[in-house]
Amino acid sequence: MCYGMHFAAKKLKPYFQEHPITMVCTAPLAEIIGSRDAYGRVAKWAIELAPYTIYYQPRTAIRSQALADFLVDWAETQYLPPAPDSTHWRMHFDGSKMRTGLGAGVILTSPKGDKLKYALQIHFAASNNVAEYEALIHRLRLAKELGIRRILCYGDSDLVVQQSSGHWDAKDANMASYRFLVQQLSGYFEGCEFLHVLRNDNDQADTLARIGSTRKAIPSGVALQRLLKPSIKPSPESDSIFVPAPPEEVGSDSRAPTDGTRIPSDSSKNAAVEASPGTSVLGPGTSVLGPGTSVLGPGTAATRSKTPELGPGTSAI
Predict the structure, then answer these.
(1) What is the CATH number of the domain that holds 104?
(2) CA nearest neighbour of 94 among 133, 126, 121
(3) Last residue of a domain, one of 195, 223, 242
(4) For the chain, what is the domain count?
(5) Deepest in the core among 123, 179, 222, 285, taking most CB within 10 A?
(6) pTM
(7) Cα(89)–Cα(150) distance, rounded to whole angstroms?
(8) Which residue range(s) make up the domain with 109?
């Protein structure tokens, strides 16, 4: 009690200096503080309280102290965390990388408890963190289209959650692009928070992610989405995403002309030769054997236009 009086006088010094203070308590503080036999801390506190006008009165009725006792007994209730807002949606997302492919799963839960389940099949080679980011980005876009204004995003990937929250930096170029895209999407919402949960608390999203990565049959009540390309432009400095070249670019001829001229295939060349004997493949008046030489039909010798005359008795072969 003496220390409490000393602490109150220290914190409320302007009030103690300007006004008389009445202290109501059951302990005989006036005798304790005013005693000449006091020593140690009590004597020190008495000296510090001496300049103030303090009246000590015994507590004669319980009712006068009821409010103070109530505040002391229930002071901890004001520090309890506030109840979650009923307008918040909840999202649980997870990614999965299996031998058969890459997939992700997302569950959107409304404030009333209704659940929307989604399975994503990712058809490009990437890391598991990329699958986590793709699931988060596509469902944030869906939440935006649904008009959701407040959302809590739960994931078991500490890297994705901490980077999305802005607590961690992204050293990988692709991760940095994904992080920037998530922050852009989260800016649309009035409230958007990314929270890390244990894998056991994210088992439903993990099940959907495994369905997407193993390419199993989609159960009823689950929406399927196929992703053919990443949401960002892959960086050549990172190997977290590999996008194969388009089929038409594979095995292309490096000798193809740049002016748009079409080179005929071998089959078209053969067809041209067989269809029109004596006609040059490269153009009129030009021979495949050399200048001034033409390709003739069967049984006809190919000769140069300026062949010298042979002498009598000389064979052409």
Answers:
(1) 3.30.420.10
(2) 133
(3) 242
(4) 2
(5) 179
(6) 0.51
(7) 6
(8) 89-242
